[in-house]
Amino acid sequence: MDQWTALKAMVDSGQPVEPQRLQEVAASIGALVPDSERDTGPGTTAHLMRAFAEAAAVTVDGDTATRSAAYLKVIRLCDELPENMISNPLVRTVRGFLAARLAVSGHDSDQVDSVIEDLERVLENRAGRRAEADLEVTESLGQLLRRRRGPGDAARSRHLGLCALVRQTWRVLTHPIRDESALIPRFAHLVSDWCREDGANDDLVLAVEAERGVALARGAGDELLRRHLADSGRVDLAEEWIAAYEADDPWAARHLDLASRLSEEDEQALAEPLGPEEIRPLLRGLGLDALVYLVPRKASAGGLMVVVPAEGAVTSARLPLLTGEWFTKNTSAEPAALSGWAWLAGGAALLAAAEAVAPGRIPRVAVASAGALGSVPWAAAWRETGSGRRHLVEDVQITVVPSARLLARSSPAGGKTVVRQGDSVRLSGPDHDEVSRLLVKGTRSVVRGIWPVTDDSALISLFWHYVGEMPTNPAAALREAQLRMLENPTDIVNWGGFTHFGG
Q1: How far apart are alpha carbons 188 and 414 in whole angstroms?
Q2: Separation between Cα atoms, residue 233 and residue 99, nearest integer Å
Q3: In which band, very low, low, confident or very high, does the pLDDT at 57 lie, cut at 50, 70 and 90?
Q4: What does the alpha-carbon distance between residue 273 and residue 166 come to, in Å, rounded to a whole number?
Q5: Alpha helices in 272-364 (DSSP H)
Q6: How far from 111 is each of 98, 101, 118, CA to CA, in Å?
Q7: 43, 73, 142, 242: least surrounded by Cβ within 10 Å?
Q8: Pairwise CA distance, residues 145 & 100, whole Å
Q9: Which distant-in-sequence residues (6+ apart) come within 8 Å of 284 by Cβ?
Q10: What's the sign of the alpha-carbon dihedral 398, 402, 404, 410?
């Protein structure tokens, strides 16, 4: 944890901060203070940081007035610094953060305009700031804009949030890290909530697609970058990138500093999310009726479904049961139980959305499911009817895509179909990492079991039979094979766990 993150965590925390912890932070921030500024008197960075530590200490006592007074003291000290120090990025960040807390909480609402100006300046100067701090500043600024509610403020907050997510995607792509922070998904959910509050469904698509973009960058970013560089004629740079990425030194790829050798056009092609206007022609070209995002959330918030039809306006809905909690807590659940939950959590809403965009016929839908939902067998989702169980595959043709960006790499003709048989474990990687890599490498589509299969020989034999009849539509071939399996009593485990990935 760096100095700024440690300080912010202290101020944000509602838990008691031990004196030893304060001493540790005080020691760590000493590295931020140049030797020339280590004087203990007023007008120095050291003096300011001591006041900040005091503000962190009083945060835990629950006294709002005391906290506000401590925050105001730090802000006053910032303003009293010499002119050349006021522009210091650390000083601006500290001042902007505390001023934002006061304004958001309503204790200093008359200062909202000036705090917004401060945070705008902080956001402009991102050099050297950690990614986490970039999201924190953007979140504070967005909240203040939405509190002020001036002309264009809500749209500005959404725009800033989306830009921050693009920066995160680009950072993960060009400066890969092995760990995975929960901060980015939380921030993406916040931006999605802003979009829904404003009724801005087109921006909502950008937000959920941006979250998928970060997941794609984490799971297959090295291959995505390599293909992009090779396809644009920069083969030597592509090879240099892969050599650094695969090196034993985990920092080699970062040290390559690939971002400095790429252009804004590269960033746009790889990191900017596709919006509805770009997704709709892709759907029409692939013969699909809609792209449906299924985004899990915590049980307290409920999940989110976003529907991008090939024709018509984007729609969205909250799905209270669409969380990853049931699925992750019941890892050994029987396939029939999992498929029954899938109907309640999202299958019913998915069918309603599909029938709305393709009335009177079997809809063809691409599903982008995130997180733990990547291992949910949507085609096998079932409900009880007067004549027995009916599965979603009987009413909808489903293909799964990790993101719209990979949908863009699909083609209605050409490319190969890969079938993975005999898998004894559920699909690995919460975001289809294995499948994403195959699709990025140019595989047209992947048919894979997403849960352990007892006997898949009959299904796969039928699949290849129908591929011979409809070679340009492997998703339809898999559906026909599954329907044939349903004609005779058979265990759902032998057919329901297979999913088609790709266009």
Answers
A1: 35
A2: 49
A3: low
A4: 7
A5: 276-285, 325-329, 335-342, 348-357
A6: 12, 11, 11
A7: 43
A8: 11
A9: 310, 311
A10: negative
Q: Are strands 303-309 and 315-319 parallel, antiparallel or unpaired?
A: antiparallel
Cβ(499)–Cβ(400) below 8 Å: yes
Residue that has been written with the tokens 């924190």 in this structure: 136
Contact 298, 374 (CB under 8 A): no
Cβ-contact 354, 290 below 8 angstroms: yes
CA distances from 464 to 155, 339, 414, 416 (A): 50, 25, 17, 13
- SS3 at position 354: helix
Residue 293, beta-bridge partner list: 306, 368
pTM here is: 0.80
Rounded to a whole number of angstroms, the CA Rg of the chain reads 26
* The pair of three-digit structure tokens given for residue 56, joined into one six-digit string: 């962190």
Distance CA 222, CA 427 (A): 21
Work out the burial of residue 398: count CB atoms within 10 Å of its CB; fewer than 13 is exposed, 13-18 middle, 19 or more buried.
buried
* Local structure of residue 373 (DSSP, 8 states): G
Query: What token pair was written down for 500?
Result: 């088609």
